[in-house]
Amino acid sequence: MTIIHNDYFALESKGDKVLIQVVQSGFSLKQFDMILRSHPRIKLTNFSSLKNALEQANEQWIEIGLWLPTIEVDIAKDKMSATVTIYETLDVIMREEEALQAQITQALQQSNVVFGVKPVPAAMIVPGKAVLIAQGAEPIDGEDAKITYLPKPERKPVIKADGKADYYEMNFITEIREGSWLGEKILATDGTAGTNVLGQTIPAKKGRDFPIRYDKKSSYEEEEQGKIVIRSKISGILTDDKGMIKVSHHLPIAGDVGVETGNLQFDGTITIRGTVAAGFRVIAKGDISIEGANGVSGAELIKSLEGDIYIRGGIFGLGKTKVEAGGSIFVKHVNEAQLEAGEAINIGVYAVGSNLRAHTIMVDERKGKLMGGEAIAKSSIITAISGNHLERRTNLIIDSVNKQEVYSEIQQRAQAFKDNQQRLTELEGMLAKLAQVAQLDSKQQVLRQQLQEQHVALLDTLMREDFEIKEMMEKVRQSGKEEILVTKQAHPGTYIQIGKKSSLFTKERKGRFKLEFGELNV
Hints:
The protein is an alpha/beta fold. The chain is built from six helices and 42 strands.
């Protein structure tokens, strides 16, 4: 097809190619540029060939470019949008708008663009410039499962209006009745599928699901109004069992533990309204709360295997009392006693002549005192005052976490976790096969029941192992940040040690003591 024919050259299109035959020189490149502007369908691809042809005028047909379609539809790689480019002059676009719109519709059909097509008025079209003609609908991902638990009161002293901490009042016990709401899970949603410009469905990502962490022995789940709700099987005390919500059996003692009750040992939580008499023992798997205002004097042993211990009125140990907690210990004051906690020891006023051992030891940093005895922690020791004006020897020691030992234990736990995951997969496979059987005989029903019980128990084990591994990893991350903080006064006679570095103070000091470049900053 002839595009232009004049005294200088002939310009023709053959298929999608543009060719030129120059018969007379003298036509400048600037003049030729005007021709390109008036013919948007010509796309110059070989400038040097055009330049030579215009200069040499050897009458040969030379390919110089492409002959573009009037309308070009381009679909994005993700098929979520399409653009249209019009290769016509603005005059043609405005004059022949109706015919052009029909051509656009036809071009879209030929390109299979059927969804999200937008009208494109002539006023929006710029010759040779792409304009959005269709837009797909993005999929909307589903919402993640949302889990809410009954909040467990934070175990810390009540702060009074004057800003002082009241160690007589702590939110330590949350009583639960049978059937009480403990938590719920709003299920993950599927999301809304999207559609690309070709009309193809784009699946949405389903929201992530998360397990509800609860103790299966003391709690159960049921579906209510489209939610999974956790309720208590028993009346008892709300506890946290390695990250799982749990209701412990509760043994309330209205008075004292002594001759009338004998020593106590209980697989749950014990609340004692009075005290523990001299020479008696109290051992519980869960929390122990001793709420008598006079505290404990001369008791032999108070031990929580997995929970916390709260002693409202303090401890007068008389060199005999031992208090041990798998979790933390909360006490107003300590005299001549031995305390050991897996997590933290929190003391409100003072500790005199006592041996303390925990991950962290905290005595009220505004007025608390550590006088005599020894405090050994893995992470930090905080007090306002250490020792006394008589220069009583007071040992503050950070026995740092042994990273190699912890890493070794993490590896062992991780292997056990992996083995249990494999066992869980096997159990689920066996249960899936049984689910395909139309009618189970009596032996198969018994087997299914056994497998389901093993499955539930194994899930609980995996949750505990996961919690413990994360707990150990956090302790490793915190290593290297150990410190001893004495906010007001470390008397002479105070001995501090972090790792293998130590110092015995011979003059009064205060501050944040830690290792800097391998040495104590004293």
